[in-house]
Amino acid sequence: MSDSSSANLVSSAYSQALEVIGQVEPRVAEATRKELADQRSSLKLIASENYASPAVLMTMGTWFSDKYAEGTIGHRFYAGCQNVDTVEALAAEHARELFGAPYAYVQPHSGIDANLVAFWSILAHRVEAPTLEKLGAKNVAQLSEQDWEDLRRELGNQRLLGMSLDAGGHLTHGFRPNISGKMFHQQQYGTDPETGLLDYDAVRAKAREFKPLVLIAGYSAYPRRVNFAKMREIADEVGATLMVDMAHFAGLVAGKVFTGDEDPVPHAHIVTTTTHKSLRGPRGGLVLAQEEFAPSVDKGCPMVLGGPLSHVMAAKAVALAEARTQEFRDYAQRIADNAQSLAEGFRSRGANLVTGGTDNHLVLLDVSSFGLTGRQAESALLEAGVVTNRNSVPRDPNGAWYTSGIRLGTPALTTRGFGHDEFDAVADLIVHVLEHTQPGTTKAGDTSKASFVLGDGVADKVRGASAEMLDKHPLYPGLELS
Ligand code: DSN
């Protein structure tokens, strides 16, 4: 099908769908139209966002949404799941083939859910099963009250080592306010204070001392690649299970930009991811596992997950099929190339990047040299139509709320077709906004960490320059709503 006849089909499908929605609740139809307009007219640089294809989006809007399907493929707690079995099996097959994983579980509703499934699986495989054996019981139904006490103590007395939030780790990697930091005894590893890079010797030393059951590798704001072979060596040395959360960079793994030691799948016991970031699928999660963890991963629902979202699993199958194409590989390479261009754009204009640059899909800009907090920078940029998110930098003096950084990712604008010149121009616009933003003051005259004053005319100038680039690279080309 030609691009234009495909765009006509999509235009007519969405126009009619919005008409149907509008007959019931016109304000939802209106907000949906406006969301498209807003996304089309802003520079989306949030590192965890993307634009899924119309095929992926449409797959989510079907009657699969109406079906309960707790259980696993061919083994459900509800009748009539034959078609859910088909789409779940397809999504799992695409995931296994794409990532070269022995086992794939596509039910998690989000990345956090995928991590909960992995935690459960590791506890069940490494703690519950051996404890049951020690107690001479085949399953938990055979345990006495005292046995239960012992098992609960074992399950709740395990250690987890993950990357700290301010070094670029995720909330679920043992951050204290998150359940991962409460259900496990946790410690965190950071990055080298001089270089900002992961220091494997320091991770090893911490792991030797702490002896975690779970070693987590992966990040949501670290702008560099990780050597997963080294992380596995460390895990093996201390008898830990290596869990990799590749939510941010799954698209770069799928697209074979990260290979060898940088591909987590052959090295980790369990890998978790979201499907909607660089992987460009529907909003959701998935788990890849070595065979030995498959039986406990499969118990994710109903152990820690609600009923699977069958319409989203169907959309995962479509997105993963897309990710198995050469076109997707080219896209993934462009994500990484564009991140280099963005980083170089900042460096050449004197801006300060955590670690000095990037070799993945994101850059972390330290805005303190502009005299701003991350919160002020984020708000000023938004006023100029540049959508970013504030983010802590290592050992951030402004904490996790105001922060000193801005995290910027290339997956979304790369989907729109932005290349080297556009990302250089984006860096220029961002530096222009930051150079023309002053911290605001409170009524008492103190400098506030949130308020700011953007110079006259800056927002209009930046919006005008962005519009030219955005018009040249339309979002969903040819999609017109009637
Ligand atoms: N919210 C995601 C991100 O922005 O990185 C991670 O959960």
Name the ligand types: D-serine
Shape: globular
Helicity range of the residues?
A: 40-55%
Radius of gyration: 24 Å
Overall SS class: alpha/beta
Counted beta strands: 17
The N- and C-terminal alpha carbons lie at a distance of 22 Å
Q: How many domains, in number, for the residues?
A: 2
Q: Give the biggest beta sheet.
A: 7 strands, mixed
Task: Write up this protein.
By secondary structure, the protein is α/β, with parallel strands linked by helices. It has 2 domains: 65-323, Type I PLP-dependent aspartate aminotransferase-like (Major domain) (Aspartate Aminotransferase, domain 2), CATH 3.40.640; 329-472, Alpha-Beta Complex (Aspartate Aminotransferase, domain 1), CATH 3.90.1150. The protein contains 19 helices and 17 strands. A 7-stranded mixed β-sheet has the order 4-10-9-8-7-5-6, with helices on both faces. The chain is globular and about 75 Å long. The two termini are 22 Å apart.
Quick recap of the structure?
The chain folds into two domains: 65-323, Aspartate Aminotransferase, domain 2, CATH 3.40.640; 329-472, Aspartate Aminotransferase, domain 1, CATH 3.90.1150.10. The chain contains 19 helices and 17 strands. It has helices at residues 3-24, 26-40, 54-59, 82-99, 111-135, 145-155, 179-183, 200-210, 228-238, 250-254, 294-297, 300-303, 310-323, 326-347, 374-383, 399-402, 411-416, 420-435, 458-472; strands at 43-44, 71-72, 75-76, 103-105, 159-163, 185-189, 214-218, 241-245, 270-274, 285-289, 352-353, 362-366, 386-387, 389-391, 405-409, 437-441, 447-454.
